[in-house]
Amino acid sequence: MVHMTEIEAALARVIDPELGADIVDLGMVKNVQIDGGTVTVKIALTIAACPLRNQIENEVVRKLKAVPGVIDVEIEIGAMTQAERTALMERARLRAREQAEPTMVHPNTRVVAVSSGKGGVGKSSLSANLALAIAGQGHRVGLLDADIWGFSIPRILGLGGERLEAGAEGKIIPAESHGLQVVSTGLLLDDEDTALMWRGLMLSKALEQFLRDVAWPQDLDYLLLDMPPGTGDVQMALARLLPQAEMVVVTTPQLAAQKVAARVADMARRSHMPVIGVIENMSGFTAPDGRHYPLFGSGGGNALAEDLGVELLGAVPIDPRVAEGGDAGSPVVVVEPDSAAAVAIATAAKALTSLLPPIADDGCSARLTLVAEQLAKMG
Ligand SMILES: Nc1ncnc2c1ncn2[C@@H]1O[C@H](COP(=O)(O)OP(=O)(O)OP(=O)(O)O)[C@@H](O)[C@H]1O
Ligand SMILES: [Mg+2]
Predict the structure, then answer these.
(1) Do residues 349 and 215 share a domain?
(2) Do the domain assignments include residue 376?
(3) Cβ 316 under 6 angstroms from ligand 1
(4) Which of 38, 100, 257, 299 has its CA 20 to 30 A from that of 18?
(5) 318 inside domain
(6) Ligand 1, atom 29: nearest CA belongs to which residue?
(7) Residues 146, 168: one domain?
(8) 185 plus 86 within the same structural domain
């Protein structure tokens, strides 16, 4: 049984990348029909030949398929009339005015939460190394350590002694490591006052601060989040603050992970955050003599990907250099790029960026956005 309210909520999470507002708010959703497990959506783009058409279509399909009961999504694309375009402009203008506040993350930044159904599976190691591999492809990448108290990113990236600084208007400037823009509670907690203030914050509030009070560069292509293990609080907060966020799930090869799959699916559903893919970590160990030992079982990544109806983006073997690199602040993709683990991480990064290509900043509505921003500045 598919509920219209859930369909509407899912559609409201599709952001027009250029206008930075959701397609429902922008009046682009013209009609929704539910017929059993099939949902048909009619969408009016600003212009029919919009270069972002495929991207918007894909996002709609992905977000609707995350709604329980939805099997098929059909999309009819049309174009807006002149009057509709004018109305959209007006909404975009209002939105740009209101938008000054919510977060400092640019709507064109792809937000990817690296999550898992249980702890200790390698979220932190993978999010750091994935971020580096994506940066290695030539993209501008940020890494937010959303594990507020269990932070491990500073150690993994060798940012031990560094502390974040305040910039203009009291905004926090991210630290830089191997070209990444990095923020973590571990880079804040020197003086007692800050520590106390942060300790008093709820986890979701802390995340909110990181998204609001950090001067995230406006040209970031990707922002990866190393998510904490456990409850979905931080996931929910993230989905609320950055509706464009998507999830990559890390799992071990253990097959008896049905419960984990259910937990992840539930988390995704409650937050309306689509899962874009699964990465299997600790996928066996290959000894120097070439023999392969599947220490933590096998098949878990594939099984979870199948259960969730998404791609397996990669399988990263057990490699002591991942752990050593993490302890020494010398990430494996930087110091041992030819190791099997680094190659597997780079492959997963490639799969991720082809599924979620950076959002082009010149498209059908870019000019509209510019005008809207200028109008908003004028009040
Ligand atoms: N592919 C790998 N090969 C060898 N060791 C690994 C690999 N991946 C992760 N590790 C090690 O496993 C341990 C757990 O990894 P990590 O801290 O990244 O997991 P996590 O999911 O972030 O944990 P938590 O849930 O506590 O945040 C670390 O010591 C890390 O160095
Ligand atoms: Mg971690």
Answers:
(1) yes
(2) no
(3) yes
(4) 38
(5) yes
(6) 323
(7) yes
(8) no
CA of 152 to the centre of ligand 1 (A): 10
- The verdict on 96 and 119 lying in the same domain is no
CATH code: domain of residue 35: 3.30.300.130
Whether 299 and 193 map to the same domain: the answer is yes
Number of domains in the chain: 2
Among 125, 130, 248, which residue has the most ligand 1 atoms within 8 Å of its CB, making it the best to mutate?
125
Domain identity same for 115 and 80:
no
* Residue 129, ligand 1, Cβ within 6 A: no
- Residue finishing a domain among 75, 102, 129: 102
Write out the chain's pLDDT in tens, 379 residues: 889 999 999 999 998 877 777 899 888 999 999 999 999 999 998 776 667 788 889 999 999 999 999 999 999 998 888 788 778 777 766 665 565 447 889 888 999 999 998 889 999 999 999 999 999 999 999 999 999 888 999 999 999 788 888 888 889 999 999 999 999 988 986 655 665 566 666 777 889 889 999 999 999 999 999 999 865 788 888 887 887 788 999 999 987 655 776 677 777 766 767 788 999 999 988 888 888 888 887 888 998 888 877 899 999 999 999 999 999 999 999 999 999 999 999 999 999 999 888 886 545 555 455 556 555 655 5
Does residue 281 have its Cβ closer than 6 Å to ligand 1?
A: yes
Q: Is the CB of 279 under 6 A from ligand 1?
A: no
Last residue of a domain, one of 45, 73, 102: 102
Report the atom number in ligand 1 closest to the C-alpha of 118: 25
Q: Are residues 340 and 209 in the same domain?
A: yes
In this structure, are 60 and 122 located in the same domain?
no
Residue pair 151/145 in contact (Cβ under 8 Å)? The answer is yes
Say yes or no: CB of residue 122 within 6 Å of ligand 1. Answer: yes
341 CB within 6 A, ligand 1: yes
Q: Which residues, at least 6 apart from 42, have a Cβ–Cβ distance to it below 8 Å?
A: 29, 30, 31, 32, 75, 76, 78
The residue range of the domain holding 299 is 110-355
Q: Rounded to the nearest whole angstrom, what is the distance from the C-alpha of residue 319 to the centroid of ligand 2? A: 17
Query: 47-54 long-range contacts, Cβ below 8 Å, gap at least 24?
Result: 47/79, 47/80, 47/364, 48/77, 48/78, 48/79, 49/364, 50/363, 50/364, 50/365, 51/360, 51/363, 51/364, 52/16, 52/17, 52/18, 52/360, 52/363, 52/364, 52/365, 53/77
Q: Is the CB of 229 under 6 A from ligand 1?
A: yes
